[in-house]
Amino acid sequence: MAVQIERIRKDIDFINKFNASPERGITRQTFSKEYQAAVDYVVKELKYIGTEISYCRGGNIKARLPGTDGNAPAVMMGSHLDTVVHGGRFDGVVGVVTALEAARVITEQKIAHRLPIDVVVFAEEEGSRFNWGLLGSSIWTGQLDHSRLENIKDSGGVTYPEATARAGFEVSDESMLEPEKLRAMLEVHIEQGAVLEKKGCRIGLVEAIAGIKHFDITITGRADHAGTTPMDARADALQAAARIIASVEDIAQEIGAHTVATVGRIACEPGQSNVIPGIVRFSLDVRNPDETVLNSAITTINQTVKDICDNRHLGFEITPLGSVQPVSLSGEIVDLMEEKAREKNIRSLRIVSGAGHDTALFAELAAAGMIFVPSANGRSHCPEEFTRLEDIGLGCEVLLSTVTALAA
Ligand SMILES: [Zn+2]
Q1: From the CB of residue 337, how many other CB atoms can be counted at a distance below 10 Å?
Q2: Buried-most residue among 58, 215, 260, 321 (CB within 10 A)?
Q3: Same domain flag for 242 and 133
């Protein structure tokens, strides 16, 4: 098999010419003119190798290499072309160009396959325009009802269906993705962390995608004079919050097993240097690929909040916000990808994703798998995002041999 990394380089360069923020990183929001130009380029390349293009439900695109069995379920591969605002050159793009290159090699080498092979481009993965991540794949897989789309708007009040129409995207295939139509879904993606780099591995084989739970926590004390209130007569909400926040880090480290917990936002009232803080509100983001571990981390944190506040005679409120279920990817696919990497002498590592991905939504429909390629210094969603072309090439090789094995 002959993956050509020069072609991949050209694809990445070409797609990233379409950028609404050339002065700072890459900004390519779903159905913007830059996004449509990038999609047009990919579609043109996919047509060139003879794929059949479908414009699918939810704004997604599918390019099919028909298999010899017209009724067989498809093996899908791909990712997204939209970016966050001021994002990087690789997030999403890597998964689209590796799928495109794999499809090129399959046609050039006339690799026989019984199952159809589809290259897919998912719309609005990042949620940076419509504030709703994984939107295209959620609609396509039926996890988000079509009727709710009228209420999903960008910051200018344009609804998702309006934006789809304005971009000239005409749905040619309204059908939903169903289990009987799908054998597998594979996605190459940048790691967005630094585990592969640290361990000197070129490929990550994703076993699970972390579940996420968000909370708002409010600590209520009493605002008093900072000069006249003795230390033993205070109800200082920020002193309690500081101890809780410190223990969030300790709890995550103690539990381990891929647990991460973050307090990323804090507000203090009244917020004056000479007044004891009366109310503190902060966010809490806890993630783990295993629901039991995730729940036990949250129980421990909640108990800590209660203990610290009770001790200090403070009030508290823990408000659950959004949550995402953890997803286990296919063990069959991980084993197969591992075997293919070993055959090519590529150092691989079984890994967990702390970020959400479209492929998570396919885990209940078909065998879903993800290949991570290393992110330099773990950076992503920023202009500094970087992955070596050689590593993208290796990801493409593992993708190609896994897809052709599944579709054989
Ligand atoms: Zn992505």
Answers
A1: 26
A2: 58
A3: no
What residue spans of 52-149 are helical by DSSP H? 93-108, 135-140
Measured in Å, how far apart are the chain's first and last C-alpha atoms? Answer: 15
Residue 89 CA to ligand 1 centre (angstroms): 11
Centre of ligand 1 from the C-alpha of residue 126, in Å: 7
Q: Is 290 found in the same domain as 229?
A: yes
Judge whether residue 74 has pLDDT over 90. yes
Q: Which domain holds residue 275?
A: 211-324
Is the confidence at residue 75, as pLDDT, over 80?
A: yes
**63 with 183, same domain?**
yes
Give start and end residues of each alpha helix (H) in 92-236: 93-108, 135-140, 160-166, 195-199
Query: Do 350 and 299 fall into the same domain?
Result: no
Check pLDDT > 80 for residue 322: no
One domain, residues 160 and 246: no
Of 94, 82, 79, the residue nearest 20 (C-alpha): 82
* pLDDT given at position 131: 82
Domain boundary (324, 341, 356) is at 324
Residue 29 sits at φ, ψ, to 5 deg, of -90, 145
Give the pLDDT band of residue 1 (cuts 50, 70, 90). low
Question: For the residues 366-395, what does the mean pLDDT come to?
Answer: 96
Q: pLDDT (tens digit, 9 = 90+) per residue, 237-260?
A: 999 999 999 999 999 999 987 899
Q: Which of 306, 324, 342 is the last residue of a domain?
A: 324
Distance 271 CA to ligand 1 centre (A): 38
User: Cα of 299 to ligand 1 centre, how many Å?
Assistant: 30
The angle formed by the CA atoms of residues 222, 223 and 225, to the nearest 5 degrees, is 130
Residue 352 Cα to ligand 1 middle (Å): 15
| Residues 19, 89 within the same domain | yes
Cα 162 to ligand 1 centroid, rounded to whole Å: 24
Provide φ and ψ at 116, rounded to 5°. Answer: -65, 150
Partnered with residue 212 across adjacent β-strands are 287, 324
Q: How far is the CA of 236 from the centre of ligand 1 (A)?
A: 42
Same domain? 313 vs 330: no
Overall number of domains in the chain: 2
Q: How far is the CA of 407 from the centre of ligand 1 (A)?
A: 25
